[in-house]
Design goal:
The structure holds 2 protein chains of 2 kinds. Chain A is α/β, with parallel strands linked by helices. Chain A contains 9 helices and 10 strands. Chain A has helices spanning about 40-45, 70-75, 95-105, 120-130, 145-160, 175-190, 205-210, 225-230, 235-240; strands at about 1-10, 15-25, 30-35, 55-60, 65, 80, 165, 195-200, 210-215, 220-225. In chain A, strands 6-7-8-3-9-10 form a 6-stranded mixed β-sheet, with helices on both faces. A 4-stranded antiparallel β-sheet of chain A has the order 2-1-4-5, covered by helices on one side. In chain A, helix 3 packs parallel to helix 5. Helices cover about 75% and strands about 0% of the residues of chain B. Chain B has helices at about 5-20, 25-50, 60-75, 80-100, 105-125, 130, 150-175, 175-185, 185-190, 195-225, 235-245, 255-270, 275-290, 295-305. By secondary structure, chain B is mainly alpha-helical. Chain B has a domain at about 25-230. In chain B, helix 11 packs across helix 12. Chain B is globular, with a radius of gyration of 20 Å. Chains A and B meet through helix 2, helix 3 and helix 5 of A and helix 7, helix 8, helix 9 and helix 10 of B. The complex binds adenosine-5'-triphosphate and magnesium ion. Adenosine-5'-triphosphate binds near residues 34 and 38 of chain A.
Chain lengths: ~250, ~325
């Protein structure tokens, strides 16, 4: 479904992403792992058009989407959440998700119908599915960190995506929030049939939900394979464990 | 809208309608000026408070609207009422041009480039004696009969201002308005949920330009003059302060700010020539003590009375 070939991006001479390769099949859950600063977020930014790559290609459903601006990438039904919470601070939880739904339905050029009467049902359904319905009238700035991370996902769902990119969805969450979030991701994959690409530092989560894993070190792809392949790969152990020969986990 | 708000607004409008009956002529003029400045500040706030765009030279659009209207009235034989549509449309078109040039730049640079371009327009108006009347401006503009008395000018201003505010209110409440506020809070996120940020900002700039132009055309009706200072950057600063003082995250804040500033200016100018100094001090006090403006402050207090904001533990 998504195919990334030799994607590269240099910031002032620093190769943040350097020959990254990635393939995600329909319905899969693929994890990207790698140490801090490996270039995971930058890779996601390149795929979603927030940053333009220097070279390489991004194919989505066999269509070249390399370098498309984010709002057009979104129209291809690719949505994402951000590592650092990135929501509309002054608006309510409901409005945050509603804008996303309105945008997908191309209604944001409508100047005269009150927003308050539009997309209510669908927005409520999304909030219900992620468990934020009770807090829908809160101003986002007053939410807990964990709830804001979930709101991130809810906003991404507003675009009715086929392909969902999650950048460290559970980072900074309490244990209980984390397990709820994992259940949510599983549900999105199983019942809604979403294809999911995510990155995460917690290996337990990664091996718990991913079908396949891509390992990134210093901007490049070290290996992409099944959990077992990755777990005992030498290069991965070099990168992660400084060369010790224990299998990860 | 709650019932109290509707009652309050209704009462306010009735008082405004009755003003000319019991107020002396000078005050009727003053309230007209407050109304049109309030409209001007509200149009700025559409892009500033709701759009998060640093529109630093909004007065240019006001001036273009006023000059557009005036030049139509004085230089063409077209039906006079047409001038009151053409002026604002000229401002809107000008908003589009300035927008296209500046929109690629990020916040502060947008504002800086806009100030430069606006000053250029001011210089042209200031110098082009044969067309704009140069630094003298144009006086004794022939206004259509039915609008020429102070009272009818007042009612015209009131009706057009209220209608414009109503339309802007609708816009802010529309999906476009929601998108605009989303863009203000977070442009990157807005792009990522499929909103074409630049195009939405551009439309907002055009709309703001249009309503600034409406305010400009109202000034022509109320004062029968235009002069280059209408598009000088100091006026832009004044409008900006109206928004900040009144509350730039509230809808009626800019109108309130306009009332305070215009009233102050009128009375302060009677005693001292240092209006700019007073303005500077007001600006400083607002930034230090009322960062959300008067109405923002009231709203905050009011909301607190009903519910403490619930902040959950991390
Ligand atoms: N816009 C930018 N300009 C300059 N350098 C950047 C930019 N974005 C990222 N980098 C650099 O690129 C490298 C990769 O960053 P990136 O955020 O992609 O890593 P990451 O794998 O997501 O790390 P983490 O696990 O900490 O989130 C970092 O060294 C970072 O400093
Ligand atoms: Mg990252």
């Amino acid at each position: 479904m998504l195919e990334v070939t030799s994607l590269s991006k240099t910031f002032d001479g620093f190769k943040a992403v350097n020959d990254a390769n990635l393939a995600v099949g329909k319905g899969e859950i693929v994890a990207v792992i790698g140490p801090n600063g490996a270039g995971k977020t930058t890779l996601f930014n390149l795929i979603t058009g927030i940053i333009k790559p220097d070279s390489g290609r991004v194919l989505f459903k066999n269509e070249d989407i390399t370098g498309l601006p984010p709002h057009e990438v979104c129209r291809k039904r690719i949505s994402r959440s951000f590592q650092i919470v990135n929501v509309f601070q002054r608006l309510t939880v409901f409005e945050n998700v509603q804008i996303s739904v309105l945008s997908r339905e191309k209604m944001t050029w409508n100047l005269f119908t009150p927003s308050a009467s539009l997309a209510i049902k669908e927005t409520d359904e999304i909030l219900e599915s992620v468990g934020l319905l009770k807090k829908k009238n809160r101003t986002t700035a007053l939410l807990s960190h964990g709830d804001r991370k979930v709101l991130e996902i809810a906003m991404a769902l507003g675009g009715n995506p086929e392909f969902l990119i999650l950048d460290e969805p559970t980072a900074g969450m309490a244990a209980e929030e984390t397990s709820r979030c994992i259940d949510l991701i599983k549900k999105l994959s199983q019942t809604m049939g979403l294809t999911i690409l995510f990155c995460e530092h917690d290996m337990e989560i990664v091996f718990g939900i991913a079908n396949r894993i891509m390992v990134m070190v210093r901007g490049g792809t070290v290996i992409q394979g099944s959990c077992e392949e990755v777990r005992c790969n030498e290069a991965v152990q070099d990168a992660y464990l400084g060369g010790s020969d224990v299998c990860l986990m | 809208m709650s019932r109290q708000t509707i009652l309050g607004l209704g009462a306010g409008i009735i008082v405004l309608l009755l003003f000319p009956v019991f107020l002396p002529r000078f005050y009727v003029y003053l309230v007209s000026i407050i109304l049109l400045y309030g409209l001007l500040a509200t149009s700025l706030n559409l892009v500033l408070g709701y759009g998060g765009i640093f529109q630093f030279h909004h007065a240019v659009f006001y001036g273009v609207g006023a000059y557009g209207t005036t030049l139509m009235l004085t230089k063409t034989g077209l039906p006079p009422m047409l001038a009151f549509i053409v002026g604002p449309l000229a401002s809107a078109a000008f908003g589009l041009v300035i927008g296209i040039i500046c929109i690629r730049l990020s916040k502060l640079y947008f504002g800086m480039l806009q100030i430069s371009l606006g000053s250029l327009v001011w210089a042209i108006v200031y110098r082009w004696y044969s067309f704009t009347g140069g630094d003298d401006g144009i006086h004794g503009i022939p206004i259509p009969e039915m609008l020429s008395s102070p009272k009818s000018a007042y009612y015209y201003t009131l009706i057009i201002t209220l209608a414009s505010l109503f339309v802007m209110w609708k816009i802010i409440r529309s999906p476009f308005g929601s998108a605009l506020q989303g863009i203000r809070d977070n442009p990157v996120r807005s792009e990522m949920i499929g909103i074409n940020v630049r195009m939405h900002q551009l439309l907002a700039l055009v709309l703001a330009g249009f309503f600034a132009g409406v305010a400009g055309s109202l000034f022509v009706v109320v004062d029968n003059t235009v002069f280059p200072d209408m598009l000088f950057w100091t006026l832009s600063l004044e409008i900006l302060i109206m928004c900040l003082l009144g509350g730039w995250f509230t809808f009626l804040g800019p109108m309130l700010g306009a009332a305070v500033i215009v009233a102050l200016r009128t009375f302060v100018s009677a005693y001292t020539d240092y209006w700019a100094l007073v303005l500077g001090i007001i600006m400083m006090l607002v930034i230090l003590f009322l960062p959300n403006g008067i109405l923002g402050y009231v709203e905050e207090k009011f909301k607190r009375g009903f519910m403490e904001p619930e902040i959950e533990g991390q």
